[in-house]
Amino acid sequence: MDSGRDFLTLHGLQDDEDLQALLKGSQLLKVKSSSWRRERFYKLQEDCKTIWQESRKVMRTPESQLFSIEDIQEDQRNTLDLIAPSPADAQHWVLGLRKIIHHSGSMDQRQKLRHWIHSCLRKADKNKDNKMSFKELQNFLKELNIQVDDSYARKIFRECDRSQTDSLEDEEIEAFYKMLTQRVEIDRTFAEAAGSGETLSVDQLVTFLQHQQREEAAGPALALSLIERYEPSETAKAQRQMTKDGFLMYLLSADGSAFSLAHRRVYQDMGQPLSHYLVSSSHNTYLLEDQLAGPSSTEAYIRALCKGCRCLELDCWDGPNQEPIIYHGYTFTSKILFCDVLRAIRDYAFKASPYPVILSLENHCTLEQQRVMARHLQAILGPMLLNRQLDGVTNSLPSPEQLKGKILLKGKKLGGLLPPGGEGGPEATVVSDEDEAAEMEDEAVRSRVQHKPKEDKLRLAQELSDMVIYCKSVHFGGFSSPGTPGQAFYEMASFSENRALRLLQESGNGFVRHNVGHLSRIYPAGWRTDSSNYSPVEMWNGGCQIVALNFQTPGPEMDVYQGRFQDNGACGYVLKPAFLRDPNATFNPRALAQGPWWARKRLNIRVISGQQLPKVNKNKNSIVDPKVTVEIHGVSRDVASRQTAVITNNGFNPWWDMEFAFEVVVPDLALVRFLVEDYDASSKNDFIGQSTIPLNSLKQGYRHVHLLSKNGDQHPSATLFVKISLQD
Q1: How far apart are CA 722 and CA 507, in angstroms?
Q2: Which residues form the C2 domain (predicted)?
Q3: Any known ligand binding at 41?
Q4: Is the Cβ–Cβ distance between 490 and 519 less than 8 Å?
Q5: Residue 50 assigned as binding residue
Q6: How far apart are the C-alpha atoms of 280 and 360, rounded to whole Å?
């Protein structure tokens, strides 16, 4: 089967000169360091999915010289650096790879399925004759993470070996795969909708969309657009019908996803003050690993921005040759140049979202280097930098809409919103130092960081001060009460997670009201030197906007974080519910009472089956034993978790069919997390994949949950099939 030609024809690329150049291949210079450079030959394989690289390692097998284009990502940790002999060659490689990646991304689930089968086949076809012996077929099934009883596999093998050559080729392999991948649960769902018919009429599809899928827009127009989009049979399409194949394609598509398609774009009002939104925010953004000795890198900023992060942190210190540097002060983390970080931010700030980026400056520089910082900010960020007030925005924070394409500085400032003392203000004035390290109450941590002086006063350069407009850093002086002027709207305080939890406990409603008109930034406790994270949910429940997490550390906290910010088009800003934006709010997350937030719902989730769960244990003979946990995150009363049974030795199409019921009283603050693990009786379960969906973005009916990897990337075809209902 020539899937490469299929791919080129399918996307009209058969005469594309970039791809033709890649199929011919070329010599490229592989660079590992300034001293290690070697010429190697690279060539796109006929399948248009893999690249062959010449290797000088003696023990290399032909397969180990191939790598998959699917593995190329914008922000991966491991980079392969290549130099082309000419700009034209470089252009061919860059454009050619972009085209393949773009067109692979636009494939529907069915094309992805074939694509995925091909890549597994290629690995299993050891002697490269494009035929599959029974032994190779068993390897193929291991690649697919499926354990089939030998006698069962043999039986299907014989049925498919129509040419009786004791091997399968072309259509026979597809037939074998089709018999294996039959989805009984889809057949059953289709039969419920179609009755005894072979196809669904427009009316039957409308009924299914109304009664099962609870689609608000259910009607002939929606039904016809789904047939148009997902029905593979032209005959059925012409008769305005949907076959079982089309039905499966619909259920596997973005329209059939458990995450609302309408919420994949910006749909919320973006014209409210900044303090009315949760803002995707990262802590010590420059770090790739731990907080004490790990590397700092501009790459970490690029990665956070590509994930939709809108608030980044820069810890600035005096560097050699009058060039300020960024690192975690008093520790052994490596150092990077302030100007290099600004260039990376300039280039990537608005790739994932057009809405404003806030740079949280922790400034420890002398006056001289602060002036260098101000010059760099102006020269590198240019017109992106917001360095003066917006017209008419003088008594509340501007909105994300008004600040589109702008970069704001958060930091210390002399005086108020208007520059102090008119034009000829002072050159520099003393302000208190803002330093998280100062809050490391934990002695054990203190002993591992270099000697830190007690002095916490800092002289601030006027040039740098003037660039801080709407985000002036101040120490928190308590919530305002009648008669005491509280913080000005442009002033914002930072709280360690412990202090924030204490304030929520002592005066939850006070914190909620404070956060209606002011921004609050929360950061991890000083003892988290391993870059572990705290739960962001409790902070969001109190209306805190800038809840900074260590983006480099995967885990349940980051999963929930990314899930919350998938909403509203993943633009990095999510509008808080109305009861967290009302200056007279009575909501207290720690002492729930009746109020507009109280809307008791019954959530039923039936976990039916799983599809193509990836292998986590690299041991060749291990097969996954999957179990699913469904968790509810939200106000403490709503927090819950239920688990399915363990299915042994089947990651390919495990079947649970278990239903769970949850009661949720504050749906606006709830998120649902689907976690799939490989059960291990003797040690910790291995993580397979997860998906976290805000309850308000969760669709009802028969849906596929598309699973993400540990780092938050989409698995190509791993899904859960579920049925969801939400009732008052």
Answers
A1: 40
A2: 581-709
A3: yes
A4: no
A5: yes
A6: 13
Pair 244, 186: CB distance under 8 Å:
yes
How much is the pLDDT for 60?
56
The single-letter DSSP state of residue 671 is E
Residue 251 CA to residue 245 CA, distance in Å, equals 10
Structural domains of the chain sorted by starting position, each given as residue range(s) with its CATH number in brackets: 3-107 (2.30.29.30), 110-181 (1.10.238.10), 184-256 (1.10.238.10), 274-386+428-580 (3.20.20.190), 601-727 (2.60.40.150)
Q: Is 34 annotated as a binding residue?
A: yes
As a whole number of angstroms, the distance between CA 130 and CA 153 comes to 19
Q: What share of the chain is helix, strand, coil (3-state, %, to 5)?
A: 35, 25, 45
Residue matched to tokens 């037939």: 175
Name the residue among 438, 382, 434 with its Cα closest to residue 413: 434
Q: What CA–CA distance (Å, rounded) separates 539 from 517?
A: 16
- What would the two tokens of residue 101 be? 């990646």
Q: Which residue in the block uniquely carries the two structure tokens 């919320």?
A: 268
Strand partners, 575: 277
DSSP class per residue in 617-646: S--TT----EEEEEEEESSGGG-EEEE-PP
* Contact in structure between 583 and 557 (CB atoms under 8 Å): no
Tens digits of residue pLDDT in 130-179: 788 888 888 777 776 665 656 667 877 888 998 888 888 878 887 887 77
Q: Are 612 and 181 in contact (CB under 8 A)?
A: no
Whole-angstrom CA distances from 706 to 561, 582, 720 are 17, 36, 7
State the pTM of this model.
0.81
Residue 30 annotated as part of some ligand binding site? yes
CB burial string 132-162: b at 16+ within 10 A, e below: bbeebbbbbbbbbbbbbeeeebeebbeebbe
Q: Is 290 known as a binding-site position?
A: no
Distance CA 263, CA 693 (A): 11
Amino acid at 715: H
Encode pLDDT of 621-669 as tens digits.
778 899 999 999 999 999 999 999 999 988 888 999 999 999 999 999 9
- Cα distance between residue 139 and residue 122, in whole Å: 11
Taking the alpha carbons of 246, 248, 254, 257 in that order, is the dihedral positive or negative? positive
Look at the block and give the residue holding tokens 């030197």.
529
**Catalytically annotated residues:** 283, 328
422 CB-near residues (< 8 Å, 6+ apart): none
Asked if residue 32 belongs to a known ligand binding site, the reply is yes
Tell how strand 714-727 and strand 701-708 pair up. antiparallel
Given a cut of 70, whether residue 452 has pLDDT beyond it is: no
Query: Which positions ≥6 away from 196 have C-beta within 8 Å?
Result: none
